[in-house]
Specification:
The structure holds two protein chains of two kinds. Chain A is globular. Chain A has nine helices and no strands. In chain A, 86% of the residues lie in helices and 0% in strands. Chain B contains nine helices and twelve strands. Classes of the chains: A mainly alpha, B alpha+beta.
Chain lengths: 190, 301
Amino acid sequence: MKRYLKPSVFLLSVIPFLIITYKILFNKLGPEPVKEITHFTGEWTLIFICLTLAMSPLKKLTNFSIWIKIRRMLGLFVFFYASLHLLTYLAIDYRFDWQPIFDDVIKKKYIFVGFAAWLLLIPLVITSSQKMINILKHNWKKLHRLIYIIAIFGSLHFIWLSKTIFFKPLIYFLIILFLLLLRVRFKKIA
Amino acid sequence: MKKIKYSEITPEKIYNNRRSFLKSIGFGAGSLAMSSLTFLNNAIGSEQDNLTSYKDITTYNNYYEFGTSKGDPYKNSQNFKTKPWEISIEGEVDKPIKLSMEEISTSFVSEERIYRLRCVEGWSMVIPWMGFSLSKLLSKVNPTSKAKFVAFESIYDPEQMNGQRYPVLNWPYKEGLRIDEAMHPLTTVVTGLYNKKLPNQNGAPLRIFIPWKYGFKSAKAIVKIKLVEKMPTSSWMWASPREYGFYSNVNPNVDHPRWSQATERIIGEGIWAPRVKTLMFNGYGDEVANLYSGMDLKKYF
């Protein structure tokens, strides 16, 4: 049973990627395909952020260590979907036209936090291996708390790009806030 | 100068539908006159001139009264009742009137007007509207000398418009124009598109369309037109004055805080089509730039 856990999680996590690939190949993206890909990959990034953040609270709640075993993979999928999201914007939407991209990052606060969040993911990806955990020891935990900032940046990215108060971005913000608050409480009890 | 024949750029089926529609409701041959094509600015490259498909125009809409997703208006507006419909023209006028939709369609001949719609979100369409100049409608009421601005008000009916049950915007939707903008011949009262009756999701039965301004200025499902002395506050200005100014002219040099306005994506061109440069006043500068001479358009955005 245990043997199948990680491959199953992997296959499930890859499904959104397969869906968007299918939609691109078979032209199922509607009138504004580029925006559709951007929103799709962006939203799945947020979903994987929420899933990743849910793992430690679930472990504490259920006392199963199974959650921690899949946490790393979920975290790597955050980076995978975030990178697809960024690449859609850079390559398909702006075709590596760096001037407007640079302007956007500097001037548009939602792009600034989005890009910052992606940058902050990089050290986490680099230090995700067991070897790095051994090398960094207690610093590893400190470093990986960056995910809290990334999560907040990610949800702000969504809120700030919305024209008015939209339902969905607020939901993600509240879920992330809830998952972060769980940690505060756990700490105090311990 | 390149003139496109409508038959060249319209899918045949739609084109034929249009002919039979014209016969059936009797717009008359005048509405098909080639002269109306000149409304689409000729300075624009031919790529950008292709008409957006009927399907995209009618399924990809910003109409928050029916929901905030682009597909929502199509899905949620099909049972919207547009009959009976009455429009009140009032305020600083000699003769305030109330007109039924029937009176409007019999008193004013709609002609085909092909205009580009540029959304503030950075996308555009080219739409063959049916309509007539707002100035014709306003001349019915004789605006007084105090009429400096025109305020448009859309219908408020949360029973029928599910989006209005949420405070997404300050309902009912309000928009406004300066009187000279409103009297400009390009400012159009829209009654249809692709030679069909205006679909509900596009603002039926009657909306306004101002080709050189961002799409949100063109209020849909209008019930009240009020001539006023002071600049009215639109729903979007009310929601975020820093982001949405009263003028909201298409201007590639003035960025919206969220979106660069330098370029736009053309709806229906597919994934691999590049962004194109946005034109000052959406390409209608020759016609409208004089309305703003001497104005700092960065300040009056």
